[in-house]
């Protein structure tokens, strides 16, 4: 899967939330750990629903997690 | 023994076990010999399976390593079993056609062996599903990868069917003497297996590529 034009702060937010593991985030969002790794590496652009789930898991807004790369 | 060395020994042994058990001409070894061959083959496959599971468990525990997701495991296992069935079919499929083009007596034994491989595949998948019962088996990314691989398989199957149609439409009749019912049936099954193989390969490669560059 090629890179996406969407940047994200998932890794930073995980560490700000008590060093949350990738598996813990995956369980909270109902996805696999490999998908979390692909998201963090910018290899996969999530659906709108998944973007909201991830933002909800961190208790922040979607725009605080994902940004359009200009 | 290190895991790499185990793979180095067990992978060729597994292929050899498959060859001895399924492809070699039927040689009567008596019941002790037959039992020894069957037991040896299952032991080698079990050891390979255990080594693969050990690698998967290690990757799952290690936060710095990218794990093999259920979707990827499903793809590689599907690829191995489809390749095994395809290889067996290519090596012995011609024995299914009798001289007059009808079904040969060997066809039922060959069909039974293929059935055994399919049952083995189902058992392995059932064991894995049991292991995955507390984890997410598939998410939107898995579905996207599967849909893309399915597209590749559809293109492959379309090319095969168009090629077959062109060959039958434009070949002179005397060059189609081989195209008896059983031979055409075998050819269609080979095409179907090739498209499945392409789908599993495309799925596995997509996961592997993502994991490698993570």
TrEMBL record, chain A:
The keyword DNA-binding applies. The keyword DNA-binding applies. CDD domains: HTH_XRE. SUPFAM superfamilies: lambda repressor-like DNA-binding domains. One of its GO terms (molecular function) is DNA binding. Pfam families: HTH_3. Keywords: DNA-binding. It comes from the Bacteria. Residues 10-65 form the HTH cro/C1-type domain. Transmembrane segments: none annotated. InterPro entries: Cro/C1-type_HTH, Lambda_DNA-bd_dom_sf. PANTHER family: DNA-BIDING PHAGE PROTEIN, TRACRIPTIONAL REGULATORY PROTEIN-RELATED-RELATED. This is Helix-turn-helix transcriptional regulator.
């Amino acid at each position: 899967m090629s890179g996406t034009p969407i940047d994200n702060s998932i890794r930073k937010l995980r560490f700000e939330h008590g060093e949350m593991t990738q598996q813990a985030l995956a369980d909270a969002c109902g996805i696999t750990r490999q998908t979390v790794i692909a998201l963090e590496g910018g290899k996969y652009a999530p659906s709108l629903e998944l973007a909201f789930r991830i933002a909800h898991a961190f208790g922040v807004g979607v725009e605080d997690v994902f940004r359009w790369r200009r | 023994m290190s895991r790499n060395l185990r793979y180095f020994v067990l992978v060729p042994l597994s292929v050899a076990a498959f060859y001895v058990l399924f492809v070699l001409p039927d040689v009567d070894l008596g019941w002790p010999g037959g039992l020894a061959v069957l037991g040896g083959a299952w032991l080698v496959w079990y050891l390979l399976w255990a080594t693969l599971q050990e690698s998967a468990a290690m990757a799952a525990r290690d936060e710095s390593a990218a794990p093999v997701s259920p979707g990827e495991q499903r793809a590689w296992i599907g690829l191995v079993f489809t390749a095994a069935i395809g290889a067996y079919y290519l090596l012995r499929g011609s024995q299914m056609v009798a001289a007059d083009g009808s079904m040969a007596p060997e066809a039922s034994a060959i069909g039974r062996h293929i059935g055994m491989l399919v049952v083995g595949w189902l058992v392995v998948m059932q064991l894995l599903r049991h292991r995955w019962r507390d984890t997410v088996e598939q998410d939107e990314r898995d579905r996207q990868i599967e849909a893309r691989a399915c597209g590749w398989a559809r293109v492959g199957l379309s090319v095969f069917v168009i090629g077959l149609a062109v060959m039958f439409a434009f070949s002179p009749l005397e060059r189609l003497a081989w195209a008896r019912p059983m031979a055409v049936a075998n050819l269609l099954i080979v095409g179907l297996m090739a498209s499945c193989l392409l789908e599993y390969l495309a799925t596995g490669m997509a996961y592997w590529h993502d994991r490698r560059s993570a």
